[in-house]
Write a structure and sequence with these properties.
Elements: E1 5-12, H1 19-29, E2 33-36, E3 40-45, E4 48-55, E5 58-65, H2 68-85, E6 94-97, E7 108-120, E8 123-129, H3 133-138, E9 143-148, E10 159-160, E11 166-167, E12 176-186, E13 191-197, H4 203-210, E14 216-220, E15 232-237, H5 242-251, E16 257-264, E17 278-285, H6 292-296, E18 307-314, H7 315-328, E19 336-342
Parallel strand pairs: 15-16, 15-18, 16-17, 18-19
Antiparallel strand pairs: 1-5, 1-6, 2-3, 3-4, 4-5, 7-8, 7-14, 8-13, 9-12, 9-14, 10-11, 12-13
Length: 344
């Protein structure tokens, strides 16, 4: 990975004794690659690396990133974590480096509704016109954040402050943020699509059901969640992960093999999933009493050294799966992705 953008900072003040372990715990929970020592920590993501060195009364930070957008993303994440583990510390930091200030975030753009149509009993496919589709296509990442402004208010979008940190609108201007997976991106038409899983009362569901051509939304991304590595793969998820699993399978090489477990509510939710010939797909239907965890609790790891485990579903299920595959079966940080897409 090349490092075209860099930022450094020193935070002064008495450091909590558990500062490094606490930050490491957050990074591990997010499935990031972590190298932890007594007073130092290195966190690696696909496009950036963060190095932290703790002293009794200071914390030194260095971030190396592939580009300015990746630098902005990881800085925002780090500052968010620091606010939680050491309240008040962020204000003491003096940053230097190659980051943007006093403008719209580098990963932000607006889009307008093109169309909404039903593609399955519980899924609506939304098409958006977006002038930034080419950038979204070229930058890595499967997901993006849909930013919905409050109804009947003029949208107020996020801004980078004088220190390069993203400031989000609050109170009456607060945006609803929801993460979705790209289905298709068409730079030539400046358009992309994504699917919304319907659940009554959900803000995004209500929006998708009532959206009209020309309605304006915000887009932040692309975000985390690269296409998984591994020739031999085990994947599992529920309806919320179905769009991501579908896109991963569609982008998989013809020689990929493995097993996919998908839990849905009823047989009506079973749909076509184009995939390599070596991938077995099992649909688990709740109406038949079948559950994802019943299968994951005894699922066999993929064979061979080039393996990968990818699981996304409800938070508690993902925690149990992570404990089994990471802690018990020894799936390494570079061999697995465990993400909760919703919380019961």
């Amino acid at each position: 990975m090349s490092h075209a953008a860099r930022a450094t900072a020193t935070f002064d003040g008495m450091m909590p004794d558990d500062l490094i372990p606490h930050i490491a715990a957050h990074a591990n929970e997010a499935g990031l690659q972590v190298e932890e020592r007594d007073t130092s920590l290195i966190v690696t993501v696909s496009l950036a690396k963060v190095a932290l060195e703790r002293a009794p009364s200071s914390l030194k930070v260095r971030i190396d990133a592939e580009d300015a957008a990746a630098l902005q993303n990881i800085r925002d994440y780090l500052l968010y974590i620091l606010d939680h583990v050491a309240p008040g510390l962020v204000a003491s930091g003096a940053w230097q480096g190659d980051f943007a200030r006093n403008r719209l975030p580098l990963n932000f753009c607006t889009a307008t509704v093109r169309s909404v149509r039903r593609v399955a009993p519980n899924f609506l496919r939304v098409a958006l016109n977006c002038a930034d589709t080419k950038r979204l296509t070229e930058e890595r990442g499967m997901h993006f954040s849909l930013l919905l402004p409050p109804k009947e208010r003029r949208p107020v979008w996020p801004q980078l402050d004088g220190n390069g940190r993203t400031v989000w609108p609050k109170d009456a201007d607060q945006l609803h943020r929801a993460v979705y997976t790209f289905v298709d991106l068409d730079p030539s038409r400046e358009c992309f699509t994504f699917d919304v899983f319907e659940h009554d009362g959900g803000r995004a569901t209500t929006w998708a059901r009532t959206a009209q051509p020309g309605d304006i939304v915000g887009i932040s991304g692309p975000g985390s969640g690269d296409f998984p590595a591994g020739k031999d793969i085990l994947m599992a998820g529920d309806e919320t992960a179905l769009p991501a699993i579908r896109r991963i399978l569609a982008q998989s090489s013809a020689d990929r093999s493995g097993h996919v477990l998908l839990e849905v509510g009823s047989e009506e939710d079973v749909c076509d999933m184009p995939r390599p010939g070596g991938i077995d797909l099992t649909w688990l239907v709740r109406n038949r009493g079948e559950t994802l965890w019943d299968r994951l609790a005894t699922a066999v790891l993929p064979q061979g050294p080039d393996r990968y485990v990818w699981i996304a579903a409800e938070k508690e299920l993902v925690r149990k799966a992570k404990a089994r595959f990471r802690d018990t079966l020894g799936v390494g940080a570079a061999e697995g992705y465990f993400a909760y897409y919703w919380e019961a």
